[in-house]
Amino acid sequence: MLDICLLNGITEFQEENRIRVFQESASFINGVLVNLDENLLLREPPTGLMILASILEQKGYSVDIIDGSILQNPRDYILENAHKYRLIGITGLTNTFNDILQTANLIKKQYPEIFMVMGGPHASFEYEKILSQNPEIDMVFIGESENSFPWVVDKLLHAPILDFVEAGNSEEIKETLNSPGKIHKLFTTIDSKDILPKGISYNTNNNAQSPDELKRVIYTGFPEAINLSELPLPARHLISRIYSVADVIINRGCPNKCSFCSRTHLFPLMRIRPVKQVLKEVEYISSCANYKFVNFYDNININHRYLNEFLDGLISQKFSLPWGAELRADVITKDEALKLKKANCKIVATGVESASEEVLKINFKFQDPSRVAEGIKIFKEVGIAVQAYFVIGLPGDNWDRFRTTLKFVESLNLEGGIDRVEFFTATPYPGSDLAMNGEKYGIKILNDNYSEYDCRTIIMETQTLISSDIENMIKEAHSLKKKLNL
Ligand code: B12
Ligand code: SF4
């Protein structure tokens, strides 16, 4: 038996076509991915889970990470293996959430003694609903969980399983398992809410029969921001061999406040990791034979000094893997772009969202589109590929402004087959200002099926755009993409 399993639901391969492409290029043994065509750089590992795993391992707990996206039959695999763990923690996004809940339900039915928790960008904003409607979920973690989750693990499991075995007390392990009602006994006997860490929620009445009874959800409050310089490196060794892409998180939080984004509410305080620590992570990644590409998220040029220090570090480290990064194109200088090139950066991704200043202003994205165009031009001059993201159907958008955006895309002179443009459909993700203050933007939400919150389906209308407008805009945007081969 092991202590903890951290589970990532099925993610972007939900789409049938992508599942097929992925599975045809992969080799599986017993349903587990063992090899992937090197050219298919599709999968990105779940970084948040790897950081939590690293902290738990430092405390002596045995941890496994299971990524549903790289399994042939994720549910069968998870159900066959769930009994090995004392606690299962699940992560997921909004569009994969229904699927994750079904999996959690199946696990709990088969193994009621397993303690089941959830966290991540969807659960953080929907904890009340999740806990009151899904008795199989014992606890939900809100926001950054590097403090709260290990605290709860210590309380529930008391010690790593190896300690029990070494002390000759294997029988006591059973006692530490979640016998029904254990959580309620544990937390309801604690008098003062204050001694619980912030960032957890649980239902004190999970065994209730009537819906009215299912409402006693305790929430300890939003957690304090984590000091990123104190975090250990993600536990890549747990899953590294099966990924060819490594993601490195540079910062949490964002100085912008875009209406459609939940990041600023998930990580309200903007922080950047020390360059030294990021470079240490890069060094480790370089030493692993499996990685062929690295992505740096969310934004490597929050300030000029940081960007320059970071790039100087990569150059002096002779970092040789090709890499990509998300960044702001509007503030890039030619010297910085040249340095990016020298540091082996192959592609940059940037959120343009709209070429209309009015639309940007209404949606709190503070960026001058003409400066974005200049920045993109600089990247093309130095030979770095560009991926530009746009959002269709935002509040304030209309046909004139949309056409301005299409003209803007054409004016960028991007290279077909090398650069890319993505048009996402505006989606009111839980935690975004659009979802929390919809009336402020005058939106009408048409669809509350979270499985369709995939940035492709039309989820909302605005005061200026009805569903058929947005549908036609998506069609026009895609035909432009096709025409320009982007
Ligand atoms: C890298 C990334 C991707 C990558 C890879 C995802 C992956 N495999 O991890 C790719 C490019 C594939 C991707 C795709 C998409 N993404 Co994305 N992505 C990110 C990004 C930039 C970083 C994720 C990350 O590692 N964060 C850092 C870690 C430390 O944070 P974390 O994962 O949230 O984990 C912490 C806590 O949440 C918590 N926690 C998380 N899980 C759990 C579980 C347990 C048990 C516990 C206790 C705690 C816990 O503890 C962690 C440590 O504090 C985030 C933005 C961001 N900065 O988070 C968006 C983000 C997650 N993506 C988002 C979206 C919308 C998408 C897409 C739909 C975009 C699109 N248009 O296609 C697709 C969906 C694909 C899918 N269904 O998976 C949204 C999610 C919104 C939502 N509610 O669903 C985010 C938040 C960005 C945003 N715009 O708001 N994404
Ligand atoms: S979408 Fe806006 S708020 Fe969200 S991370 Fe990007 S710039 Fe920041």
UniProtKB/TrEMBL annotation:
Residues 26-163 form the B12-binding domain. It holds the Pfam family B12-binding. Keywords: Iron, Iron-sulfur, Metal-binding, Methyltransferase, S-adenosyl-L-methionine, Transferase. Gene3D superfamilies: Cobalamin-binding domain, tm_1862 like domain. Residues 240-469 form the Radical SAM core domain. The keyword Lipid metabolism does not apply. PANTHER family: ANAEROBIC MAGNESIUM-PROTOPORPHYRIN IX MONOMETHYL ESTER CYCLASE-RELATED, BLL1977 PROTEIN. This is Radical SAM protein.
